[in-house]
Amino acid sequence: MRKDIPSAFCTYALPQMLGLLFNSVYFIVDGVFIGNRLGTDAMAAAGVAVPILEFLIAVSMAITAGCGVMVSISLAEDRRAEANRWSMHALLLALIIGILLAVSGSIFMQPLTTMLGSTPAIRQDVHAYLSIILSMSPFMILSFLLGGLVRNDGHPVHAMAALTIGSLSNIFLDWLFMYPCSMGISGAALATALGPLLSDIILLPHFLFRRGSLRFTSFRPQIRTFGRILLLGLPAFIMEFTIGMVTFITNTSIGVLGMGETGLAAYLLIGYLMLIILTLYLGMAEGLQPVFSAMKGSHDTEGLRSLLRFSMAVFCLTGLICYLLVYFFSDRFYAMFTAGDTALLTFTAGHSRAYFSGFIFAGINILLISYWQATKKTARGMTAALLRSAILPPVFILLIPMFAGEDFFWYGHSVAETITAGIALHMLRRTR
């Protein structure tokens, strides 16, 4: 293995992993405050809204990754004007999609809350939460895109700092809006929505003061370029939206299996832990994208193979450590949210070991999808992304548990990830 591979991994993968991990604080801190301040029904309402939050993040990642691949390759080939053209198209695309989501969300909020599976007891809370989140969606999409552009422009620590500061602000804002201001679940949503706005403010000086190769320039929008960004970013969209897709399928299955508000609240808590684990994988994978793309642009085949092997070893080790922590200590994590609700804590902790049993394979899937996307092998990345989101989860989380029972339900996500990993590794072996 080349000596520069561990250094490249640490320089790019670790800062983005830490930044995205802090970004997950948006949701987890909300859960702590909601669970202790507002109770189980409010937690169930927040859980029902998770697919929309994940959809917003997935859109952000699609634009960021699609643009990032071309920006990194262009900069590696010393074509700065072309790199700026890609980044400006991505910024305009992010604004257009963000505004469309904000407007359509306000128009179709009622059918949206029904479609997401909210029960009559929590529908009003879901409506209040999503109204604020969707109205601020342009800022959330821009925060991910600006961070990705700064990272691709060779400043990964700046991108990490913006994500981290925006996330930490959410802690103070949650306390402010939910305790002194007594804003209820609307306060939790507002705190979550304002974090990305602060990240945007921190990231903008990189472009305004021309601290790298990327800057704001005039350009002529081209529909073909918008389409190219979305096509290249489609695997990232599917990979990120897997969390939201699986959450939606799981919430539906919980209703079919008759687990009610307790099941929804328990899965929300499991979802917080799942978010941390997947964020570790996603952060490292996103951080590696500029390195994979730059090696692709400079035709460094040996570097690509060495970095992929090293990264796979790190991802597997990360997955093993995470499962050991879940196996022995997950009940302590869930206790932060349950406010003395022993029944909910016991129910949730009792099913965690089964739910996370195959998550080491989720890391392999995420790494390979990111690798294929960064090297412009979009079809392979899309195949793996679809398998772990739209094809296998409905079978193993929703359909089979209807006949096999509730016990199999908690293994469904891990089974889907394991089968996807087997197919993805087979595709990688055939490619070589």
Proportion of helical residues = over 70%
- Ranges with pLDDT <50 over ≥5 residues? none
Q: What count of domains describes the coordinates?
A: 1
Number of helices: 17
How far apart, in Å, are the first and last alpha carbons?
18 Å
- Approximately how much beta-strand content do the residues carry? under 5%
What does the largest sheet look like? none
Provide the gyration radius in Å: 21 Å
Q: Tally the beta strands.
A: 0
Q: How confident is the prediction overall: mean pLDDT?
A: 86
Helix and strand pattern: HHHHHHHHHHHHHHHHH
Structural class: mainly alpha
Shape: globular
Task: Report on the architecture of this protein.
The protein has one domain (4-431). The mean pLDDT is 86. Helix 11 (260-297) runs antiparallel to helix 12 and helix 11 (260-297) packs parallel to helix 13. Helices cover 86% and strands 0% of the residues. The chain has helices at residues 4-23, 25-37, 40-76, 80-107, 109-115, 123-135, 137-152, 156-178, 184-208, 223-256, 260-297, 301-338, 342-355, 359-374, 378-404, 406-409, 412-431. By secondary structure, it is mostly helical.
